[in-house]
Amino acid sequence: MDELLDLAQSLCPVIFVGMVPVDEAKMPFLDCFYFNHRDQYLYKEATKLACQQRQIPYLDIFELWLARGTEWLRSQLGDDGLHPNVRGYQTLLADILKWQPMTQLQASDRFSHVVNY
After folding, report:
1. Which domain holds residue 60?
2. Better pLDDT: 39 or 34
3. Is 10 inside any structural domain?
4. What is d(CA 26, CA 97) in angstroms, rounded to the nearest whole number?
5. What is the DSSP string of the chain?
6. Is 49 a domain residue?
7. CA gap 15, 57 in Å, rounded
């Protein structure tokens, strides 16, 4: 992760959007992968720390979505319990676009070549 973040920063402005929480009730996925909030939390914290050490803005989607409640979360995930559904991707986009580091990046000259939504 460290090398990837360092390389990315050498090429362009970097922001990091964290992972969505899984629906633990749908695990194990494919009868062989068991993803859970505890492991996701540990991975999220390690990723967040690596970003903080490099002053890379980190959007904590995991905590943001969990705070909205279990039923809300399930309404945003696809049948596999891992990936957002259409509504979830729409919500993810909205969360990213209203995040202050993203609005600052959009307003900067370094972002002028990217399409604004």
Report:
1. 2-111
2. 39
3. yes
4. 29
5. -HHHHHHHHHHS---EE-PPPP-GGGPSBTTTB---HHHHHHHHHHHHHHHHHTT--EE-HHHHHHTT-HHHHHHHB-TTSSSB-HHHHHHHHHHHHTSHHHHHHHHSGGGTTSPP-
6. yes
7. 5
Residue 116: inside a domain: no
pLDDT for position 66 = 97
- What gap in Å lies between CA 2 and CA 87, rounded to an integer? 32
Percent of the chain having pLDDT more than 90? 71
* CATH number, residue 80: 3.40.50.1110
Specify the amino acid at residue 102: M
Question: pTM of the prediction?
Answer: 0.85
What is the tens place of the pLDDT at every residue in 49-79? 999 999 999 999 999 999 999 999 999 999 9
The count of structural domains within the chain is: 1
Q: Residue 81: inside a domain, yes or no?
A: yes
The more confidently predicted of residues 110 and 16 is 16
Q: 38-76: b or e for each residue (b if 16 or more CB lie within 10 Å)?
A: eebeeebeebbebbeeeebbbbbbbebbbeeeeeebeeb
